[in-house]
Amino acid sequence: MANRNVEIMLFTSYLLAILQISSGFIQGIRIDGRCHRKAVVTTCNLHRDNEKELWYEERVSQNPSNVENLIKFAHFLQGIGKYDRAAKIYSTALQFDSEEARRQSHILASNKNAPREIQSWKKTETATEFQYDTLSEQWTEFKVLLRWESGKPYAVGGQRECKRLKISDLKALNASESDHVAKSFSMAGSSSNVDVKDYFQEVLQQHVAQRFADEFNWHLERAGIQQTVSFLPVHVLKTRGGGATNVEAFLEGEYTKHNDNYGNILTEDVFPHALSHFSWRITRGRLMLCDIQGVNRVYTDAQIHSNVTSWSFGRGDYGEFGMEKFFASHECNEICRLLKLDQAHTSEDLQAQRSFFSSDEGLQAAFDTIVLRGVETFQRSDPVA
After folding, report:
1. Does the pLDDT at position 157 exceed 50?
2. Once rounded to an integer, what is the mean pLDDT over residues 241-246?
3. Alpha carbons within 13 A on the beta-carbon side of 149
4. Per the confidence metrics, is the pTM higher than 0.70?
5. What b/e readout covers 34-70, taking b as 16+ CB neighbours within 10 angstroms?
6. Neighbours of 190 (CB within 10 A)
């Protein structure tokens, strides 16, 4: 009887084990079925979103000036998490001065789910950019879209303040944005007395600085030195209300100031200090390039001292006084010696590769073309919407 009971218990345990295994198998089938259905639904949704995006894109390309379609497209992109592209489409709609596009782009920027990079660029506006072509010696206008970095300027100097922004072409639907820096005369620099002419004067100054760089590079090559220096081109922006500011490409990397316009030598890099000495030597003491700063060998924001009674390079031009301050601190380095800058003036002294620096006529012609004609172009241009 006992053996019979044991057999019944063993048989019952065996049945229970089979039932548990079966139940797990069936449950696994159910779970797997749900996962499969979820994967199918996700794939279908993704396919539907891609299809709808292509549909919107085709509608917008057929009629790029239809602001309503642009906003609907951007709103759809925002809904599926494509924030970067949504921001660009809103930006395109802004060229038609759409208040709804401006409102939606601000909402997008404040969306906590949007990438941090988008959240930090909130203020958007249209503007006119003026670029000077050194080859044709003409000013060209471009309608652009600006996206300003929110918050205070990231750098403030004695005369100007700097703020980052992104610039894109208004006419292109998927125009890429590029990082720039806007430099405006600050309150600390008596901005109440600033004229539009001052901003075009900055363009002239960078233009002349690049001419010095070209000459310097030519003489370096002749001396067997395989190094070059350059200066960023500077443009002028006309913003809402008719205001002006300078703008240039944002330099990535470690920014270094090598010397200033008051004679201070701030680094041991031989090239920028030799360039300052070279500019004075090649112009026979009439001009000196200083306040050299930038990333690696790409410089920006230079200042020129002029020892010419009828000439001035703006607010930071300290003339002969500034030149004397430089030489009070400067010690000739190996580049100065290779270019024989440490030797006294002779009849066989350094000669400019071009005639630009040989007389005041070249500078006067540049001033007339860049500054005077630039101001005229700025004032004649249509108001920014």
Report:
1. yes
2. 87
3. 18
4. no
5. eeeeeeeeeeeeeeebeeebeebbeebeeeeeebebb
6. 11
